[in-house]
Write a structure and sequence with these properties.
2 copies of one chain form a homodimer. With 329 residues, chain A is of the alpha/beta class. Chain A folds into 2 domains: 222 residues, Rossmann fold (3-Layer(aba) Sandwich), CATH 3.40.50; 92 residues, Rossmann fold (3-Layer(aba) Sandwich), CATH 3.40.50.1100. The first copy, chain A, is built from 14 helices and 10 strands. In chain A, the strands form 2 sheets. In chain A, strands 1-2-10-7-8-9 form a 6-stranded mixed beta sheet, with helices on both faces. In chain A, strands 5-4-3-6 form a 4-stranded parallel beta sheet, with helices on both faces. In chain A, helix 1 packs across helix 8, helix 3 crosses helix 8 and helix 9 runs parallel beside helix 11. Chain A is globular. At the A-B interface, helix 12 and helix 14 of A face helix 12 and helix 14 of B.
Chain lengths: 329, 329
């Protein structure tokens, strides 16, 4: 077994045992999401492709796996004091639902211009939503302040061992279902899903190459991967809103360096084409970030043939009107 | 076992044995389509709901089941002479693909104003497409003429025993997967799917009530069902294009009377709401006709609670741009 980097696993923050434990914790709470195949995709790419459809996960994305795992591990005392997170997207809803299921009060810090539909969905799960002005404050500092005032536990969207382990159960599930894989394509924002999945693949399918996929305009992780020095982007203008994170985290960076085999990027145009291909041919609703891994394959960013390829479709929370405007635009 | 009507099964054109035989013929050719569940839907309706997703079937709809079964039963001589059908929709693509797989030449008669994308998809499977002017000729007479000239076998879209039996495998598959059902909701155009599914449900889940669902503006089968006399509609203006058929067929009418327990209708507005609900919440792309059965449940057209309900989602071939216009309109 060769590792792509020289780090020793002993110093790394998450191990496969954490993913196994998360998997047991999530049993009966998460959906065992379907794995779809398409003869059209197989013919077009010359591979056997398995789409793991986390857009069918509870709250519409893989984020629920990490959020539930993190909240389920809290002590009775921590549960009583509640949790807090910052996110305008899928992690917000995931934490809100996990809190509701586990009877833990949740507070979500969101920018004041977050789509009303996302604010409502988050409140719908019983979370308290606190809005802030992007121009006046950063979400991290505000969240820290409120958490301190309330003595609440912060559950960050990716740079947290329990979040990473929970998200890694996605790869565990797909590999256990399809038995063997030569390649696994995973999108990368903050790197929580990517590192969790890479740990699982390393344990369950050691020959499997794990490739992270980023938007061209938010290629910080790709540059970090190649330079082995943490790189960042500032408010990148990509339609893949889930991958606009400035940089990999303190935990995810070493994990990505250690377990991931390569990183590639795709353009927003390729992403849009892929999203609509998945809508029209696979009949699944996928959000832009959710189509990143599929785009890498369908747009020829990974040179491979006659291989068994897993593609993680991460989410389906998309504003239909807005997206169809992109189609027409 | 009670039957909803006084017809004797001995005189009926399709029996459950035909569906079993079709099922064997389709093995490895059709997709075993996923059955999706939704906690939101269960909570909202107070039932346990199983969505059988034929939008994931080959060619994007259940029509492939009937087409393949009918073509697979042809004699070597008939195969050589080829088949012909008339359809601007899902049956066209289904026959074209079945012909390609079985090496049978296919000719499809389509109106000259059929969407280019559907013409292209049909040609893409290797079918010859013959266009006609709706104002000048009817598709049935033209098809008959061409079939005669070419000595080809006509495969009508629903009023054909092998088509009905093939389509009925949809219900067989869902009932065998979920084990028991109290109700099965099936859309109704020409009644092929509805009668096939009702035969299967009668054999496999005798206590299960089978309900046909039509658009309000194309309610001919509902009126035929209640009056026990064949009723028709003329070019109804419903967005459910797959249910614009003028009336039940010579074979499907007695089958519907015999095996179906009730018929209900839904408005186009309800259909649109349901289609977008399925897109946004279940993350599946469904065409208007494909959402009929779900609409009956979600819009409260069937009064039932604490029941196990199967809902057949029949197809996902939808023009995204056109649908956006409906959404905005």
């Amino acid at each position: 077994m060769t590792h792509p980097s020289e780090f020793s696993t002993a110093t790394l923050p998450v191990a496969y045992g954490d993913i196994e434990a998360a998997s047991a914790r999530l049993l009966g709470q998460t959906n065992q999401t379907p794995i779809l195949t398409s003869r059209t995709v197989n013919d077009r790419t010359g591979n056997q492709v398995f789409f793991k459809c986390e857009n069918f996960q509870r709250t519409g994305s893989f984020k629920f796996r990490g959020a539930f795992n993190a909240l389920a591990k809290l002590s009775p005392n921590q549960r009583q004091r509640g949790v807090l997170t910052y996110s305008s997207g899928n992690h917000a809803q995931a934490v809100a639902l996990a809190g509701k299921l586990l009877d833990i009060p949740t507070t979500i810090v969101m920018p004041h211009d977050a789509p009303i539909v996302k604010q409502d969905a988050t409140r719908g799960y019983g979370a308290e939503v606190i809005l802030y002005d992007r121009a006046e404050t950063t979400r991290e500092s505000l969240a820290k302040q409120i958490a301190q005032d309330r003595d609440a536990t912060v559950i960050p969207p990716y740079d947290h061992a329990d979040v990473i382990a929970g998200q890694g159960t996605t790869a565990k599930e797909v590999i256990e279902s399809v038995e063997s894989l030569d390649m696994l394509l995973v999108c990368c924002g903050g790197g929580g899903l990517l590192s969790g999945c890479a740990i699982a693949a390393n344990a369950l399918a050691p020959g499997c190459r794990v490739i992270g996929v980023e938007p061209e305009k938010a290629d910080d992780a790709t540059r970090s991967f190649y330079s082995k020095t943490l790189q960042s982007v500032h408010n990148p203008e990509t339609i893949a809103d889930g991958a606009r994170t400035p940089c990999l985290g303190r935990l995810t960076f070493p994990l990505v360096l250690h377990y991931v085999h390569d990183m590639v990027t795709v353009s927003d145009e390729a992403l849009l084409r892929t999203m609509f291909f998945l809508w029209e041919r696979l009949k699944i609703v996928v959000e832009p970030t959710g189509a990143l891994a599929a785009a890498a394959l369908l747009e020829g960013m990974v040179a491979v043939s006659n291989a068994r390829i897993g593609v993680i479709v991460t989410g389906g929370n998309v504003d239909l009107r807005q997206t169809l405007e992109c189609l027409n635009g």
